[in-house]
Amino acid sequence: MTLQNHFFIAVPLPDEWKNQMSVYLKELKDEFAFTRWVHPEDLHITLAFLGPVSEENIAAIKDSMKVIAQETKDFSLTLDRLGTFGNPQSPRIFWHGVEESAELNALRDRVYEVCEKMGFELDRRSFHPHITVARKWQGPAFQHESSLSDLARTDTFKVKEIVLYQSHLHMLPKYEKIGIFPLKQE
User: Fold this and answer.
1) What is the pLDDT of residues 119-150, one digit of tens each?
2) The domain 7-182: what is its CATH number?
3) What is the DSSP string of the chain?
4) Domain ranges of the chain
5) Could you tell me which residues come within 8 angstroms of residue 19 by beta carbon, excluding any fewer than 6 positions away?
6) What are the residue numbers of the active site?
7) Quick check: pTM over 0.90?
């Protein structure tokens, strides 16, 4: 069985944050028994997960994302909390959240609308913007909920681009930038 590479559209964290986030992830790793930590180059906020994509659709996606980016002003996001998804005792995903952002929600809605018109079947769950930092809890029952707020970062960064990524499951970093689409500068 061959593994297919998947594609997704996301907001990357700024390049200047990669070293800081690398140090931060090492600090979190000392506190939490997750088995798979995200490479700092792979930190992002997913806007739309597309799955496998044909070559001709990649070109169409790039054209559409370029238009969306040109029509969207850059904006700021602020990190605000840590949390988990999955079983509270043995979480699947450890994430860092961002404050509510009308601009981010509007961007995600626009990306979804365009991708659905292109025929992609996208996740219909409500949007909970987050940066996955680790996966697969392995340890005694997770009982760190109370300490999560003390460890969360509260940095603010400028969203300057959206990116079309391709995943490579057996590489590190796992995500390759296939298309970079700069937002309109304020």
Assistant:
1) 999 998 899 999 999 999 988 888 767 678 88
2) 3.90.1140.10
3) -PPPP-EEEEEEPPGGGHHHHHHHHHHHHHH--EEEEPPGGG-EEEEEEEES--HHHHHHHHHHHHHHHHTSB-EEEEEEEEEEEEETTEEEEEEEEE---HHHHHHHHHHHHHHHHTT-----SPP--EEEEEEEE-SSPP--HHHHHHH----EEEE-EEEEEEE-TTSSS-EEEEEEEEPBP-
4) 7-182
5) 40
6) 44, 130
7) yes
